[in-house]
Amino acid sequence: VASASPEPICQPLAPWRTALAKAIHGNRKLPSARYPQLATVGLDGRPANRTVVFRGFFAHTNCLQFITDARSAKAEQMTHQPAAELCWYFAQTREQFRMAGDLCLVGAHHPNPHLQASRVQLWQQLSDAARLQFNWPSPGDIRQDNQPFPTDVPNRDEPLIPAE
Ligand SMILES: Cc1cc2nc3c(=O)[nH]c(=O)nc-3n(C[C@H](O)[C@H](O)[C@H](O)COP(=O)(O)O)c2cc1C
User: Fold this and answer.
1) Greatest CA separation found in the chain?
2) Cβ–Cβ under 8 Å, residues 50 and 72
3) For the whole model, what pTM was predicted?
4) Residue 86 and residue 101: Cα distance in Å, rounded?
5) What is the secondary structure of 135-150 as a DSSP string?
6) Which of 49, 93, 97, 140 is the most exposed place for a label (fewest CB within 10 A)?
7) Atom of ligand 1 nearest to the CA of 49
């Protein structure tokens, strides 16, 4: 789970928060309106951009939540350089939001209990199809001999990798 700021809890609501929430609501019939583009900085200093699913705001904060596989390139990138940009186009209302912020990877050992609770909740809310992907081989790895991907869905109520 990534969120747009390392210490989001005490921030006052930003002026853009209402406009963004309104655009999300106004475009809710378009599935693509849930898919912003998230750009990070690669380990080589070059931009790295990809589509992600918006998973809601963290509580009543300015903090946007996304889910990612901790083995993905973006997870490593954000620990080296948290600065990121989000570009989000809403086709129904013809609005574009470009947002700059810092990413925070909320892994199994993140010390903030509120962020941990949200991480667990997002895991539990995932569809089986989405949770299944976390059981697949590491993203970006070369596929071994065209082996079929695992089809056993991780348990909604248990972590995929138990915290040590
Ligand atoms: C419609 C759509 C939604 C996606 N949603 C996510 C997502 O929520 N989280 C994610 O990590 N990757 C998502 N992906 C895959 C990413 O775009 C990307 O290919 C993958 O995360 C690997 O990126 P990385 O190697 O830069 O980390 C989505 C792709 C598409 C096409």
Assistant:
1) 52
2) no
3) 0.91
4) 8
5) GSSPTTSPPSTTPPPP
6) 140
7) 26
Q: What is the mean pLDDT of residues 35-57?
A: 98
Pocket test for ligand 1, best of 52, 88, 132, 141 (most atoms within 8 A of CB): 52
Give me the mean pLDDT over the 30-49 stretch: 98
Can you tell me which residue has the tokens 């921030």?
11
List, in order, residues 6 or more apart from 111 with CB less than 8 Å away: none
pLDDT digits (tens, 9 = 90+) for 109-119: 999 999 999 99
Instruction: Match 């940009």 to its residue by tokens.
Output: 85
**Quick one: residue 14, left, alpha or beta (phi over 0 = left, psi -120 to 50 = alpha)?**
beta
* Residue 89 bridge partners (DSSP): 96
Read off the tokens for 58: 């963290």
Phi first, then psi: give them for residue 7, nearest 5 degrees: -125, 75
Which one-letter DSSP state was computed for residue 44?
T
Asked if residues 135 and 150 have their Cβ atoms less than 8 Å apart, the reply is: yes
Q: Spell out the alpha helix ranges (H) of 5-132.
A: 15-26, 73-80, 113-125, 128-132
**Site of tokens 């869905």:** 153
The set of protein residues with a Cβ atom below 6 angstroms from ligand 1 is: 35, 48, 50-53, 66-69, 72-74, 139-140
CA angle (5, 136, 101) in 5-degree steps: 15
